Amino acid sequence: MLEKKLCFIGAGNMTRSIASGLVKSGYTSSLIHATNPSVEKLDALKRDLNIKVSHDNLTAAKDADVIILSVKPHFMQAVCEELSVLDLSQKLIITIAAGITANRYKDYFAQEITLIRTMPNTPTQIGVGMTGLFADGDISQEQKLICEQLMKSGGEVLWVETEEELNQVIALAGSSPAYFFLFMESMLAAAKDSGLDETKARLLVQQAALGAAQMVIQNPELTTAQLRENVTSKGGTTAQAINAFESGNIRGLVKQAMDDCVARAQEMAKQY
Ligand SMILES: NC(=O)C1=CN([C@@H]2O[C@H](COP(=O)(O)OP(=O)(O)OC[C@H]3O[C@@H](n4cnc5c(N)ncnc54)[C@H](OP(=O)(O)O)[C@@H]3O)[C@@H](O)[C@H]2O)C=CC1
Ligand SMILES: O=C(O)[C@@H]1CCC=N1
């Protein structure tokens, strides 16, 4: 891997996920610097990953080849404006924020920048993440490769051509771990209501979810509908359960949730 000096601005959940993936895949930890206002997350990153940490965005960014903007969208403008006093012409800027468009970053920095928008997800932390990538404007193959390699240390990557497509990535992969967690949460709550031991229920649910995902991955020639049908015996137990989901309009609900997710990203693009 092309090892560059990295600086994460913001040391929350996603920085932890991406930096963990990098360190686990052998990235030199002394080349990674994370900044954050509060001290607890920095202490934890130092202890767990042995990366550099500080409160000083400007010094960390000045020293880095690649700046990864990893704050919540409502802090992004202030962070970019703070960094805009630096000469950023030789730096690659990667943002992981939802919603904020490439053009907004140009406004915030008020100088020419080399920007790649990405949309990772939390499973990046354990190497099974999914990250969408969007290169704004004229970006060299080397810069694309640097970004791709960084994100690949956390799992799969997919380049998209437009920012609208990146909003679809949010609905399908950035936010979707939460949908699956909600589904599992609901199953566990139902099991608890039925009196099943929580540890036993969790083992059953997590292994079934892992198995279902692996079945999809390892059988690319089968549609997800075929995989579902293979579980569903005529007149059997699964058919009863699926019937309950279909009667509750699960497909409409999922479509609504994904449309709302994309709509929120579009709204954020106007808001920030
Ligand atoms: N969570 C997810 O699943 C995903 C999130 N994203 C995107 O990632 C970004 C970060 O999300 P996430 O990691 O969940 O958020 P977190 O709140 O966990 O982390 C953001 C961190 O930024 C810090 N921060 C706030 N202001 C500054 C500043 N001025 N300078 C430096 N650091 C600052 C916060 O500090 P403090 O300790 O004071 O709170 C916090 O630790 C968001 O833009 C989100 O859209 C993208 C994909 C998936
Ligand atoms: O909820 C959010 O806005 C962020 C983006 C994708 C996952 N979490």
UniProtKB/TrEMBL annotation:
<dbReference type="Pfam" id="PF03807">
    <property type="entry name" value="F420_oxidored"/>
</dbReference>
<dbReference type="InterPro" id="IPR028939">
    <property type="entry name" value="P5C_Rdtase_cat_N"/>
</dbReference>
<dbReference type="GO" id="GO:0004735">
    <property type="term" value="F:pyrroline-5-carboxylate reductase activity"/>
</dbReference>
<dbReference type="InterPro" id="IPR008927">
    <property type="entry name" value="6-PGluconate_DH-like_C_sf"/>
</dbReference>
<keyword id="KW-0028">Amino-acid biosynthesis</keyword>
<dbReference type="InterPro" id="IPR029036">
    <property type="entry name" value="P5CR_dimer"/>
</dbReference>
<comment type="similarity">
    <text>Belongs to the pyrroline-5-carboxylate reductase family.</text>
</comment>
<dbReference type="InterPro" id="IPR036291">
    <property type="entry name" value="NAD(P)-bd_dom_sf"/>
</dbReference>
<dbReference type="GO" id="GO:0055129">
    <property type="term" value="P:L-proline biosynthetic process"/>
</dbReference>
<protein>
    <recommendedName>
        <fullName>Pyrroline-5-carboxylate reductase</fullName>
        <ecNumber>1.5.1.2</ecNumber>
    </recommendedName>
</protein>
<keyword id="KW-0641">Proline biosynthesis</keyword>
<feature type="binding site">
    <location>
        <begin position="9"/>
        <end position="14"/>
    </location>
    <ligand>
        <name>NADP(+)</name>
    </ligand>
</feature>
<feature type="binding site">
    <location>
        <position position="57"/>
    </location>
    <ligand>
        <name>NADPH</name>
    </ligand>
</feature>
<dbReference type="Pfam" id="PF14748">
    <property type="entry name" value="P5CR_dimer"/>
</dbReference>
<keyword id="KW-0521">NADP</keyword>
<comment type="pathway">
    <text>Amino-acid biosynthesis; L-proline biosynthesis; L-proline from L-glutamate 5-semialdehyde: step 1/1.</text>
</comment>
<comment type="function">
    <text>Catalyzes the reduction of 1-pyrroline-5-carboxylate (PCA) to L-proline.</text>
</comment>
<feature type="domain" description="Pyrroline-5-carboxylate reductase catalytic N-terminal">
    <location>
        <begin position="5"/>
        <end position="99"/>
    </location>
</feature>
<feature type="domain" description="Pyrroline-5-carboxylate reductase dimerisation">
    <location>
        <begin position="163"/>
        <end position="268"/>
    </location>
</feature>
<dbReference type="InterPro" id="IPR000304">
    <property type="entry name" value="Pyrroline-COOH_reductase"/>
</dbReference>
<keyword id="KW-0560">Oxidoreductase</keyword>
<dbReference type="GO" id="GO:0005737">
    <property type="term" value="C:cytoplasm"/>
</dbReference>
<keyword id="KW-0963">Cytoplasm</keyword>
